[in-house]
Amino acid sequence: MHSPNDESSLIQRIEAALGAKAPSFGVGIGDDAALWKARPGRDVILTCDWFLEGSHFWRDVHPPDVVGWKCLARATSDVAAMGGEPRCFLLSLALPESQTGTWMTGFLGGLRRASRALKCPLAGGDTTRNEKILISVTVVGEVKKGHAALRSGARKGDAICVSGRLGGAQLGLELLIREKTGALEQDEVLEKHFYPVPRIDLGRKLTARKLVTAMMDLSDGLSSDLQKLCAASRVGARIFETRIPLAGVIERQRIEESERLRAALHGGDDYELLFTVPKRKVKRMRDAIGGVPITVIGEVQGGRQIILTKKDGTEEPLQNAGWDPFRHDKKSS
Amino acid sequence: MHSPNDESSLIQRIEAALGAKAPSFGVGIGDDAALWKARPGRDVILTCDWFLEGSHFWRDVHPPDVVGWKCLARATSDVAAMGGEPRCFLLSLALPESQTGTWMTGFLGGLRRASRALKCPLAGGDTTRNEKILISVTVVGEVKKGHAALRSGARKGDAICVSGRLGGAQLGLELLIREKTGALEQDEVLEKHFYPVPRIDLGRKLTARKLVTAMMDLSDGLSSDLQKLCAASRVGARIFETRIPLAGVIERQRIEESERLRAALHGGDDYELLFTVPKRKVKRMRDAIGGVPITVIGEVQGGRQIILTKKDGTEEPLQNAGWDPFRHDKKSS
User: Fold this and answer.
1) Most B CBs within 10 Å: which of A25, A48, A137, A143, as the mutation test of the B interface?
2) I need a surface site. Which of A54, A236, B69, B98 has the fewest CB within 10 A?
């Protein structure tokens, strides 16, 4: 006989929580694999993302609902970064038997909300037991054939743009570790750290009209991610400290501007878009994307250096100090 | 500056080891996500599989080359079970910094051999640091539209068939834990445990000719997997102890027949196919599949019971004692 916590029962709970299959599915959860129908005239986007207890989240810091939302949102952000739309996802979940109760229910609640908000239904997955909670999410997306935005197309003279404001997720994490209280939940930076919203609509509009030459999402921090985009495009860049859109913080937090700047340059997890636009298209781009705030923070240059022009007019090479799992511990950094 | 062990360097090593991109790829490793082109007239198969140190393999028991081969082979077996062909895979790899040297090189060697043998190139993935080695593999496959074999189509009277011989992987694991010696590597059962070969060609032939009514792969053990197939098809089954094709063992191992039977009924990791065929098609099926050994071990029945007819003619309900991560520890079971 099966115990209430055997693998089949867990799979049934996941299926029940994540709801109905999308019409594009032949078969969802419960067979050897999922069947999915790609649409004609589209390229398929494939991406996967780790979300591990102790590296990407902590059980004493992040409510299970947040873990559920965030594991799907961040994987989906890679689809947004290509200009695509998510179509479905696979969930690889490993957890201790002790977390199959309340924790898992909260987790599935957050995951369901993300799945609905991002129009990205569950197609399948794998479940096993482990002492720590391990999550790997694979997202399948689609983009009009030949329209995907890559990291490699930036050209000298292009404007370097970012969406939204930067550093909020990092400031939110720091606040959380410092104050460890549920009373903070109304803060904008905490919201950004807990429930990031991938820029799917913006990414699609930017690529559908061929407005960008290169694009990626900001997951590790501007200083690391800009370096990756420039390396892929074989170009350099100059950005201006004063133009970087800093995350808003509320008065009583007394966060100095230098801290906000550090978070904006090197903090990860914002899931905003970083992209390059030919200068003559900047106005057209602004008209096309509706209300999303976009800031031009610098321009693509020849050579391979990435220069930061500071407030006082001096310049320095931009230090690559974003998050790298092999160099940092996120919680203690 | 990047250290030799930062994330980018690891990704470069993985890319170099796994070789050239397949022609169906727009973009592979190194962008936000991979781009892949589905073929017209096909359904896409999506599957993912955990392979965790301490649950699915042990560093002191399984050479890194074996871990590399097996993590891809077992995920690909789910594609074979649907009658599909693998097209590409995503690798989610987390490991301690101490294993980024020799261990990772060995692992990538085994993975490359599997990738080539199974015609399943690497499309992308995610890499991070963790105290234990964590692997999740997502395989993308394709099958002719409407031809996928599901678990749910078995009908009363169908013959229940298995490919190959059963229990070998389990006996191999037990041998390995008991004797812990490299000298055993020539053994058939050890080979089966170390380097399983998914039945891709067989699965494709069986479905292309619509010979099977239901199919799945044997990953957790016949007793568990037959129960899953019957539950999905809402049928019962009778199988005969004397017909089960037991794994061969060499003389000096002195493994009793009762042990071989136990391994065949309840041992996991064989990655053979379990399928049902209408009785009138059994001969046609044998003709169609070429040299692969197939054994009819019983038949689908009405009701929902699964009965084992024993050697002495007595019968009993088949105990569901295959592997379940929430009930067993593989090494100590």
Assistant:
1) A48
2) B98
B81 Cβ under 8 Å from any chain A Cβ = yes
Question: How far apart are alpha carbons A258 and A317 in whole angstroms?
Answer: 18
ipTM of the complex: 0.92
Residues of B in contact with A50 (CB under 8 A): 92, 94, 126, 128, 134
Scan residues 271-310 of A and list those with Cβ closer than 8 Å to B.
none
Nearest to B163, CA basis, from B137, B196, B209, B141: B196
d(CA B108, CA B18) in angstroms, rounded, equals 7
Same fold flag, A7-144 and A159-317: no
The three-class DSSP label of residue A131 is coil
Out of B30, B54, B90, closest to residue A138 by CB = B90
Q: Where are the domains of chain A?
A: 7-144, 159-317
Q: Tell me the shortest Cα–Cα distance from B246 to chain A, in angstroms.
A: 24
Give Cα separations from B306 to A118, B137, B223 (angstroms). Answer: 42, 33, 9
Name the residue among B40, B48, B143 with its Cβ closest to that of A40.
B40
What would the two tokens of residue A275 be? 């992209």
Q: B50 and B91 in contact (C-beta within 8 Å)?
A: no
Average model confidence (pLDDT) for chain B?
Answer: 90
| Burial of A257 (C-beta count, 10 Å sphere; 0-12/13-18/19+) | exposed
Q: Give contacts of B148 with chain A, Cβ < 8 Å.
A: 26-27, 35
* Cα–Cα distance measured from residue B136 to residue B145, given in angstroms and rounded to the nearest whole number: 27
Structure-token pair, residue A78 = 């890679």
CB atoms within 10 A of CB B239: 21
pTM reported for the whole predicted model: 0.93
Residues 6+ apart with CB under 8 A from A207: A82, A83, A143, A144, A147, A148, A149, A215
- pLDDT tens-digit series, residues A223-277: 999 999 999 999 999 999 999 999 987 666 678 889 999 999 999 999 999 999 9
Q: Residue B234 region, left (φ>0) first, then alpha (ψ -120 to 50), else beta? A: left
CA angle A93, A96, A98 (to 5 degrees): 125
Which of B7, B12, B48 to mutate to probe the A interface, most A CBs <10 Å? B48
Does domain A159-317 bear CATH number 3.90.650.10? yes
In the 8-state DSSP scheme, what is residue B221?
-
Domain spanning A7-144, CATH architecture: 2-Layer Sandwich (3.30)
Query: If chain A, 333 residues long, is cut into consecutive pieces of 10 residues, what is the mean pLDDT of each piece?
Result: 67 81 57 88 95 94 95 98 96 95 96 96 92 97 94 97 96 83 65 94 94 96 96 97 89 80 95 98 93 96 96 94 74 50
CB contact under 8 A, B3 and A52: no
Kindly determine whether residue A320 and residue B97, on different chains, have CB atoms separated by under 8 Å.
no
Could you give the C-alpha distances from B114 to A114, A149, B20, B21, B88, in angstroms and in order? 35, 31, 15, 15, 12
CA–CA distance from B89 to each of B32, B112, B140, B218, B272 (Å)? 16, 12, 6, 21, 21
Whether the CB of A30 is below 8 Å from some CB of chain B: the reply is yes
